[in-house]
Specification:
This protein has 290 residues and is an alpha+beta fold. It is built from 8 helices and 13 strands. Strand 11, helix 7 and strand 12 form a beta-alpha-beta unit.
């Protein structure tokens, strides 16, 4: 018997991870990669009060679906066992009631372009697709096709299992994501991310500038069950851009994932940085709103 419940993090987090592991497909996958779900839960921006707005569906003792936001309410994502398409309309209804942005009253629902059933339901309900951007692309690369670049003189490559300076790490991420000024030295966000169960410091790569600061950073996650990797996040200090550092850091992550056994490496973006490395678009997310 299928039953719907409010999301309970203690009960449901690992169940969702298992759903994502088991429904993985290389090309036309129906759901997120499991590392994206884990990364979301250990991101400092996550509004955990939104947990009560998520919903899960169980068939007897097996979790078969969840509808949730990501870091903030206002955009909803459906993760579902493929044979339970009949639940998609109920999931949309739940999102409309509970996952809209409470300030703007807006709601977007994201569908993969090959999910014909969800797209049809959304269109029938009056949703319209927004214009696609490179940020809506899901891209992938064969890690055996990657080779490392030579770094500029004075720059060196390391990983967080060798040197884990959280203040320097916070600085490159703060500046790399276009925040003004200098960070305030708060390293709680870095500590939170590194506490994730499947976080591996050796997969988090930094390129050090001659002065010792972290000039560029690339993180990576590994799904050992499906032998796939996910690149997330990548950032370069504005003082060191256009030197090929982000590319070198990302390539090093890919090579390290390959050593762990990864057969495919993904990134949820199709920006020029990744296309230049060799990532190819597999499919796109379509953002629907009304």
């Amino acid at each position: 018997m299928i039953k719907k419940y409010s999301y309970n993090h203690k009960r449901d987090f690992e169940q969702v991870m298992n759903l994502l592991y088991k429904t993985y497909q290389k090309v036309r996958r129906p759901n997120w990669l499991a590392p994206r779900w884990e990364y979301m839960h250990y991101h400092s921006f996550l509004d955990k009060t939104s947990y009560s707005s998520f919903a899960v569906w169980y068939d007897n003792n097996k979790l078969i679906g969840i509808v949730s936001s990501e870091l903030f309410k206002g955009k909803a994502f459906l993760q579902l066992c493929p044979k339970y398409d009949c639940l998609k309309e109920d999931m949309i209804t739940h999102a409309e009631k509970h996952l809209y942005n409470e300030q703007t009253k807006d709601l977007a629902i994201v569908a993969y372009e090959h999910d014909a059933k969800l797209i049809e339901l959304l269109k029938n309900k009056g949703y319209q697709a927004k214009e696609s951007t490179p940020w809506n692309e899901i891209t992938a690369i064969d890690p055996t096709s990657v080779s490392q670049d030579q770094l500029p003189n004075g720059f060196s490559l390391s990983s967080l299992d060798i040197e884990n300076d959280l203040i320097k790490l916070e600085r490159v991420l703060w500046r790399g994501f276009e925040n003004e000024g200098e960070p305030q030295g708060d390293i709680k966000a870095r500590e939170l991310m590194q506490s994730a169960p499947n976080y591996l410091k050796e997969l988090n790569v930094v390129i050090k500038a001659p002065n010792g600061n972290y000039a560029s950073y690339s993180g990576a996650w590994y799904d050992k069950y499906n032998k796939v990797g996910l690149i997330e996040p990548v950032a370069t200090d504005p003082d060191y851009r256009r030197m090929g550092l982000a590319s070198s850091a990302t390539k090093e992550c890919i090579l390290r994932l390959a050593k762990l056994g990864a057969k495919t490496v993904y990134v949820d973006s199709g920006i020029p940085l990744y296309k230049a490395i060799g990532f190819n678009t597999l499919f796109r997310e379509i953002v629907f709103s009304k």
